[in-house]
Queue: 3 jobs
Job 1
Amino acid sequence: MGSNMAENHPVGYRWPMKAREKGATIIHVDPRFTRTSATANLYVPIRSGSDIAFLGGLINYVLTHDQWFKEYVLAYTNASTIVSDDYVDAEDNGGLFSGYDPQSGSYDNASWSYAGPPHGPARDETLQHPRCVFQILKRHFARYTPEMVERVCGSPKELFLQVAEVLTKNSGRERTSAICYAVGWTQQSYGAQIIRAAGILQLLLGNIGRPGGGIMALRGHASIQGSTDVPTLFDLLPGYLPHPAVIRGDDTLEQYMRESLVRGGYWSNLPSFMVSLLKAWYGDEARKENEYGYQWIPKLTGDHSHVSTSAAMADGKVKGFVVFGQNPANGSPHAGLQRKALTQLDWMVALDLYETETAAFWYAAPEGWKPADIKTEVFLVPTAGPGEKEGTFTNTQRLLQYHDKAVDPPCDARSDLWFLYHLGRRLKELYRESANPRDQGLRSLTWDYRPGRPDPEYRIQDEPSAEKVLMEVNGYTVADHKQIPGIDRLKDDGSTACGVWIYSGVFPAPGQNLARRRNRTPGNYVDPEWGFAWPGNRRILYNRASADPAGKPWSERKKYVWWDAGAGSWTGLDVPDFPLGKAPDTPAKEQGTGMDLHSGSDPFTLKADGRGWLFAPSGLKDGPLPTHYEPLESPLSNDLYPRQDSPVAKRFRRTDNPISPPGDPQYPYIVTTYRVTEQYTSGAMSRWNSWLSELMPEMFAEISPELAAEKGIENLDWVVVSTPRNQIECKALVTRRVRPFRHNGKLIHEVGLPYHWGYKGLVTGAMANDLVALSEEPNVYIQEDKALTCNLRKGRLR
């Protein structure tokens, strides 16, 4: 669900295909019938934007048909935990949870907390208490019936029930099922909650922490996982550490630790991770007396996401913009507004392989601006492609793999690392004598990534060493600068430095770059010596759950990690994601901290209570349980609750970002965006390739024969697709791959738009993102472009 794996992740999709040859069942739930659908055993159509309703229906089926993995759920989830008396579920409150403030449009999650003392929440192991998580879950999803799924999602009831039966039969002691998703889930105004719904389903079925189970986030680029880890989100520091924020009161390092620290589980080591990060960044200048340089980190004052920054840029509040590996003039939501925003800058630096739409906005944009009227000074810096530089890729599996440079980049092109290193070196020199307190962080930065031994094979001799960067990422002891072997060696006293704590162990000694490993392990399908998987080379997170509470494999067939009583240690095919010497019958220490607060049968080491969370008492801004809302733009009213859409999604209410109200007759159709195999994202890496451009030369709109007949459109006719933001023209592709859905007897049409074309490259075409609104999902600030509304007519713009 939420992915077209065969077309968008074809290299990875060979593994599901191999599994199918051995008898596995592939299910594809998607608005369009794609190549993934064609290779699946079972295809189920679904209306864009209704994923939570479908998953909620599966959760309800598992609960009402008593198909949940009882031993697993009782021992390994928070099903038995009792929730606060103050909690009110969306089920009883019109689609809103307790704690909602309509003035701020946000939740106070205090009422979502557990009942009982913080160190030991109250539990009912019989699961009968009306406020235990299990009973709350049953009530919350009770309305998500097969009939409701058919009505809301447009998915035929018999197909939905077939999915439910296949999933439940393929889960339990002997069998596991996996769920794969991509941006079809994430790019919605409740994307994180869709993934939560999948997590609840997999926990109920016992499919987390076990081989063949889990939820795979399919990454569309070579190292999107790596740029998430290190990270790209403005509110995180490397390794998912919270970024200090004024609004949280993180004025001092001590306050930051107090606000961010979790008493139980592995996150109790946050002080060691944070201090080691500061030592990696600021070296000898990071001392206890100056909070290890903590005050040199800028503090968040609000929403500094890409979408919010673009809106501020359009209002003239941003002076400069450095664009790496991004093409907002085409690839970002409300691309027309993004282009307008670029005209308000004083300067912009674009680093890319080609002159993208963003780099060329000042003279080539469809708005027809005169270059003389654009005040923005644009610098286009040619960069290197993947084969023209060395470094690591981190893939969907959290696997780091190091790759060497094959050839030099052409002419003046240089790698991103080269640009950043030499820019930093020059800035440090420029500010070397500054006494201004705000410059001390820059002056103190450790910046020793100088090239190693010159390689006569290559022309470029001043390329910084990517391996030196990775060695700092791994971490070292400050006193002697020796590499540390892994996370457990990190300290909070300033004696260790580590750039990314979750990657620690990847480079444990000079000459031992484990990301370079390519060793097959006979008889072990896990291949633990191929690359390095974070954290600590664990291939499956929470793999303690692959054994029962007594430490024995759930079945011989699914044997993965188990307790060896003779050796007094956990062992198996993978690195155990658990303290090695902690016996299964070890009791939790009620007055303890960290892993001591977990018992020997609490496998979820990164959770405060050691349990998988069916109910999330904290961590999410839009509710402790997934709840079906309609997209911000929808032709339908919410059939499940009075509340129409996400109460906490950000809408950007501005005159140049109009959003269509529910059921707006001017925009009666659903539109969704997607990728094709032959082009890549906004086209910045593919539309300059003649072979790919010949294979997929122009933009199109996929529509059903029914919609085509209704509008008098023939295949390959020109059509205009419009939303409140903009309108575009392209050819119509009339196909049964897209089908209408029935809702209360009414036909609901969908339009499919790929988003790869623009006004630069060998082939050009309309930009789908011109149609998309500025909006943000509240947890990760992503836009909603997988479900919005549009109109369609035959003809052209002019």
Job 2
Amino acid sequence: MTKPGFTKFLITLVVAVSAHAQINVLTANYDNQRTNSNLHETVLNQSNVTTGSFGKIGYFPLDGEIYTQPLYVSGIQIAGATHNVVYVATMHNSVYAIDADTPSSTTALWHVNFGPSVPSSVLNFTDILPEVGVLGTPVIDLSKQIMYMVSDTLEGGLPVYRLHALSLADGTEQLNGPVVITATVTGHGGGAVAGKLVFEPGIHLQRPGLALANGLLYIAFGSRADMDGFHGWLMSYDATTLAQVSVVSTTPDGFGASIWQAGRAPAFDANGNIYVATGNGDFDGSVNFGESVLKFSGADLTLLDWYTPDTWSALNANDKDLGSGGVILIPNSNQLVASGKSGDLFVIEGNSMGHLGPKITSTVQNIQANQTGTFDMALWNNPSGPILYVQEFRGNLDAYQVVNGKISGTKLTEAVAATQTNFAGITISGNPSTPASAIVWHTTADNTTSQQPGTLHAYDASNLSHELWNSNLVPADALGRFAKFVPPTVANGKVFVPTFSDELVIYGLLSGGSNGTDAGAPVVTAVANGVNFLAGPVSPGELVAIYGANLGPAVPAGAQVDQTGHLATKLSHTKVFIDGISAPLLYSSENQVNAMVPFGISSSSTTVIVQNASQFSASVTVPVVPATPALFSSNGTGGGEGAIVNQDGKANSYGDPAPRGSIITMWASGAGKTNPAGNDGQIALSGSLPTPQLPVTVMIDNQPADVLYAGAAPGMVQGIIQLNVRVPAAASTGQVPVVLQVGTYAGPNTVFVVLK
């Protein structure tokens, strides 16, 4: 048996264990487009959004990441009282109604869950981790007091989409919902059988926000990173009966043309016509419309008009989706704006879109806003002329003005990037009668690596070089993990910001100049595997991530090792009791604690309780299974490139692939009980290395690999195992999946190794 060796790479791994460094985002309905949202806001302005006056006033713990924009509704009757409510949906298939006027509360007005989310491993997809639940932002019908949304649930091992209609008052299903989403159109494109193209939930994502117009709901679908035989789909449903009315595919006789729009909902004009933009795919100007901006009749989804740049083939060949930024309609005009990965910004006449043609025509304007691509944009209907705010890919936030229907090719103003942000969220707030009060709210993160802490910025909307405030200026204002593509919601003097930290962070005017996030009793919202971050059963010795509120200190505390060589069971004022046993801790913060499950827990279920100072959370019961294996990834997300060291001691990557037939080293958790019995919290030493009781197998590229060693990792806490594995000589080159199995329990297939 090959003995494990300690490498410098373990230092990086310890950091990855310390905190779940994930973060992602999505867009909302934005009144059916992300234009000058919340311009009736009268409380926040450029005078009071300053350090000392404005900051973090609360956060609400949730059970999953937020890819949807929060939706705010005032004056809702709930349990006999009137509330201003923020509605938030998560990727764990939950919806929360939160009292917007009590930002320090951790108790929901109501909360519903739609059932098991779809693990990313089932979708063979690592752009979104660890699960897919409610991905597209819901839409609300105030007249009906109903919120509509789409869930993705795992049923019989397969994804199933459902359309829900929930009461705003209590979250109960209305209109005889939910209904399963299915669709079929005539066609001979990829996946068609006998002239029929059937919608396949397993290869499509409901990425855009839902839209509501003409008494109908509109739901759009795109691909999973352009994998498999995908198409773009647009469906309409009766908003009263939830019966399907119309369906259209953007490539019924071809392939591709997702409608994803970085989460932006479809846009509507005054006549109820619907506009969307498509991504990579086939184009023939007849029925297949990749790389196009499309105008449909809202009544029956008949195609009325369209524009496709004559460079579509090059866009398609180079993954330059025209549809990455979606569509915005310019108020009080017949014009619309579209942007894409090529960095082009188009202004198109909605009444005469031009069909296939050059970038600049009598009905199409174009400027090269940047050379790197656009996913995020917003529009402020400034009285002196609409202003478009465009996020450069890993670059600046730029503003361009439209005057007399013409867009200027010269930047009006820009905010120079402090970080290389790819997928920002942008919202504008202000008083329409006082343009000088307008603020651009901008969420950013360093996206050169995955899953990073985010920052909320506030800029003068007329002069982006003038930053009013940001959440990094005061430690107590820290945002948490960045959620990509999701804009903040600004309402009634507060800013509601989604995160990938399983929490909605709330900013507003400070009371007495102090931060308003006073701690109450700990609240536990989820107990997840600390490697792949999927909630579910736990196993003896597993690393777990516990999410909630008031769990620990505002300034996070990292692992401590005592004189006996054991991890501390108390960090700051935080302790975790699992099965009544004080668990070893690796990390503690307000909203997350990472702990090692004691090896001696019960065999069927256990309880989790968090103590913070003198206060205790309610007991949470969690199932127990013999093993919950999961491999560490290099970026700490549980997916993508594995935390793998090649035989030459270099970290595995595209730049340093492992030779087939060589030995690689990996790390994992969730292998269960060991021989000899595990010692809770002990740092493993080279002379005493427990190994799993259950057999350990590894598949690389769907082929069995020779496991040379599987056991405790020297220098790391017991419960983290090291695997030395010989790569099968017949494995494919390039990126291939790695799957760890312990006994009969297999981990997800979301980690890969790069081979040569």
Job 3
Amino acid sequence: MTGEFGFVEPDEADAPGDEWEDLDLEDIAQTEADEIARRQDDEFDEFRKRIKNTEQFKVEASVFDDATLAALYKLTRDGHIAAFGGPISTGKEANVYEALGADDREVAAKVYRINTSNFRQMRDYLEGDPRFEGIGSDKKQVVVAWVRKEFSNLSRARKAGVRVPEPIAVQRNVLVMELVGHADDRARRLAEVDVENPETAFEVVREYMRRLYSAGLVHGDLSEYNLIIHDGELVVIDLGQAVTVHHPNADDFLKRDCRNVASFFSRQGLETDAADLHEYVTAPEAEPAAEPDPATDPNPADRNPEDSTPADRGGDGE
């Protein structure tokens, strides 16, 4: 892998403490997709039959229950998905599929599996988060909340100037986002490439970690496997588990992220230290310097001569 890495420009990021909008538990319990699946109108029934007759559905039938099909149907009806393609990646908790979005833009549809998601691992990230009080052990509600959290995390990270896939839409257990690269020319994980410029790559990664933290987020699972490269850009992915800095385990998660990142770049020949990285990420940002007050400025030589007093200029005022 060659080339220089550049930063994306941050917008005015929100302050820590308002990391996510309030989640409506009633809305999570009964999404529009659930309502569509229950209603089973003729239009949805035709959509379901069309999907089920594809070869892709026959291979991945366990992913597409009626409620997931209803979520895809709702996203299609809202114009976020125009055509659905094959898988880009498959995992225990979610599959990512290529799709066409508005204006024939290539997008990725991440479909979480309700029944096979790692509920216990999710709880490690959700416990202590006041937004999830009352969800209890209902797996479907936890997964739906998790998907919405990922959408919100991506939005917040982009606003803070972290290069992540652009979130587009969310419905029940389906997240539609920017497809980084192309299905036939997918972006590569940092672990899969020969990093020929590790110094610059490390600077970008640690700066993105700092920007996330300044925006009130800790990734919580950052490593060379959750960083991808495409067209000379480093992109942070998989922010579903990212937690607020106020989460009781946030610092433990951040220290683990720092160990993972420092260890990877140490193997690339850099002198890196997890503790130093943690200090850099969490260091408070310096306040901008205030304009000097001419009446109290201890260093009048730095002032505009027109603003100085006669005494400052060595005269007596006459």
